[in-house]
Amino acid sequence: MFYNNYFGGMHLLWWVVWLILLFWIFALPYRVPFQRYKKESPLDILQRRFASGEITNEEYQEKKKILENDSGKKN
Predict the structure, then answer these.
(1) Residue 54: which of 46, 65, 42 has the closest Cα?
(2) Which parts of the chain register pLDDT below 50?
(3) Closest by Cα among 63, 36, 39, 38 to 49
């Protein structure tokens, strides 16, 4: 009698819930709560910039020396 709309009603609602959940997990660019991320140190950032070619070797050596001297004073 009323089985013509089997995929309607609550069954359709569950498909929508699953699609929204999958979209939230795989498509949204937000970080997952309670997940730990490693913070980059200034030296890591400097090495990444040197590797990508943003700074020259002279700039890299000069800034590396400054960072190493600053870290030595704090310890």
Answers:
(1) 46
(2) 1
(3) 63
Those residues with Cβ within 8 angstroms of residue 37's Cβ, 6 or more apart along the chain or in another chain: 31
What's the pTM? Answer: 0.46
Classify the phi-psi angles of 53: left when phi > 0, otherwise alpha if psi is within -120 to 50, otherwise beta: left
Report the distance separating Cα 53 and Cα 62, nearest Å: 15
Q: How far apart are CA 70 and CA 75, in angstroms?
A: 9
Kindly state the helix (H) or strand (E) to which residue 5 belongs, with its residue range.
none
As a whole number of angstroms, the distance between CA 9 and CA 48 comes to 54
Residue with tokens 């040197």: 50
Task: Give Dmax over CA atoms of the chain in angstroms.
Answer: 83
What separation in angstroms does the CA of 53 have from each of 42, 59, 63, 66? 17, 11, 15, 20
